[in-house]
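Ops channel
N.P.: pipeline sanity check, posting one input/output pair.
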């Protein structure tokens, strides 16, 4: 499976953010404080996938579908760059987004996903996301990114704010993604770059 970009551009008004490039498209963007309305928009975008390019496209080769990646994003692409609902617990967030993706989330499902990223569900079950540490929230985002078992996973600085154990979780997530499809990591961290089979310098 390959992720191919052809004459890809993304513009906001007259400002071009991404120009024609051979590199994969990423959902990286500037950090900002989100309002409740923006978080709701994020939730909908998280289920649908990233917005379409202004021109060109990104294509999944080797899927057997022959369709542009943009038509498959909702079901085939995942990413961890989502603002979780601060007032909900980790399990409540995961169950909510699973419903948006149309995925089954039976008893114990969310707790299994949380344990898979190295967190103890019993220790954080009573705490909303806002009460968790930055590293714990980062791990929950990794659980979110893979909850629908995407064919293509985008990770932006995945080891940021993580200790050595957390970095081990990132390596585990990347290794599991290799068995499913592709993982695109955007990072300046040597540890993250060491996980890559191929590198593109921008």
């Amino acid at each position: 499976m390959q992720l191919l970009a052809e004459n890809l551009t993304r513009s906001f008004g007259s400002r071009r953010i991404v120009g024609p490039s051979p590199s994969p498209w990423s959902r990286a963007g500037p950090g900002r404080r989100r309002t409740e309305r923006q978080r709701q928009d994020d939730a909908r975008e998280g289920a649908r996938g990233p917005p379409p390019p202004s021109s060109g496209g990104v294509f999944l080769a080797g899927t057997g579908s022959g369709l542009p990646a943009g038509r498959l994003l909702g079901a085939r692409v995942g990413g961890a760059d989502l603002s979780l609902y601060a007032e909900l617990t980790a399990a409540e967030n995961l169950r909510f987004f699973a419903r948006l993706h149309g995925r089954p989330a039976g008893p114990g499902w969310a707790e299994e996903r949380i344990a898979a990223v190295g967190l103890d569900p019993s220790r954080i079950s009573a705490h909303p996301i806002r009460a968790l540490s930055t590293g714990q929230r980062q791990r929950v985002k990794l659980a979110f990114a893979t909850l629908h078992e995407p064919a293509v996973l985008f990770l932006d600085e995945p080891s940021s704010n993580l200790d050595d154990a957390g970095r081990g979780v990132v390596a585990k997530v990347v290794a599991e993604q290799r068995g499913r499809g592709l993982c695109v990591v955007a990072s300046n961290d040597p540890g993250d770059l060491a996980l890559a089979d191929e590198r593109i310098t921008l």
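N.P.: looks fine end to end. Residues 21-34, 69-75 have pLDDT under 50 and may be disordered.
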